Amino acid sequence: MNAPIIKLDGLKLALHSRAGKVDILRGIDLEIAQGQSVAVLGPSGSGKTSLLMVIAGLERATGGRVNVCAENLTQLDEDALALLRGEKIGIVFQSFHLVPTMTALENVALPLEFQGRRDAFERAASLLEDVGLQNRLQHFPAELSGGEQQRVAIARALSTRPQLILADEPTGNLDGETGRQIIDLLFAMHQRTNTTLLLVTHDEQLAQRCQRTVRMADGHVLSDELAGAA
Ligand SMILES: Nc1ncnc2c1ncn2[C@@H]1O[C@H](COP(=O)(O)OP(=O)(O)O)[C@@H](O)[C@H]1O
Ligand SMILES: [Mg+2]
Fold it and tell me: With pLDDT > 70 as the criterion, what percentage of the chain qualifies?
């Protein structure tokens, strides 16, 4: 097996709400090899989004160990976490966070410009073409539909060829055809460049396309199976 790109040992996440302490992740052990595709399934509220947030360094674990891309996340400060995300992790979450004053093309080119790449705009245009938005390059987010904005966000997440893609129900508000295109794009990237894909989904059929299926319930891992090992 390749070296793990994600290694969680006894990961816990508790948040304090007005009603008191809420245990959201209750001790998760999980090891994912570089290049693997893993579907995360589970009922609403089981902790899937929270798990991805911790792995992305957007939420701090309150217990256990979190190793991602060879870094111990508990030891990194906010700047180092942001740098890690920018260089190695592609995040496809449900809220897109596009920059409203930038066109679709500029939004996708931004992370590439940060990396000092001269072909930032060419590559951004090519990625927008991959997600079917070749006719929307100069549109601002407010001029795009929700589904189109999401596709811009996906193009941006893939732009830097991240080692790890974290996708939280990426086809949640896309229609059938566009949703399929996006999924095909994620899997093509995974296969072509050995990108690790961690994909939260409700869709059993989509989960079948992954090499491994992790089922969560109530902040725990309920089962963890390799494809074809039913
Ligand atoms: N900021 C928060 N404060 C308190 N509880 C939260 C917070 N965010 C999520 N939760 C709770 O954590 C649990 C897991 O949420 P989440 O990770 O979003 O689950 P899923 O993505 O599987 O639907 C839910 O019970 C949710 O209500
Ligand atoms: Mg969720």
Answer: 96
CB atoms < 10 A from the CB of 31, how many? 14
Q: What long-range pairs does 220-229 form, CB within 8 A, spacing at least 24?
A: 220/26, 220/27, 220/28, 221/28, 221/29, 221/30, 222/42, 224/30
Write out pLDDT tens, residues 161-203.
Answer: 899 999 998 877 667 777 887 888 889 888 888 899 999 999 8
Fold designation for 4-226: Rossmann fold (3.40.50)
Ligand 1: which of 21, 50, 220 to mutate, judged by most atoms within 8 Å of the beta carbon? Answer: 50
- Average pLDDT over the chain reads 92
Near ion ligand 2, which residues have CB within 5 Å? 48-49
Hey, which of 24, 201, 216 would you mutate to test ligand 1's pocket, going by the most ligand atoms within 8 Å of its Cβ?
A: 24
Residue ranges per structural domain of the chain: 4-226
In degrees, rounded to 5, the angle at the alpha carbon of residue 201 between the alpha carbons of residues 33 and 133 is 95
pLDDT at 13: 98
Sign of CA dihedral 171, 189, 206, 51: negative
Mean pLDDT on 211-223: 97
**SS3 per-residue string spanning 183-230:** HHHHHHHHHHHCCEEEEECCCHHHHHCCCEEEEEECCEEEEEEECCCC
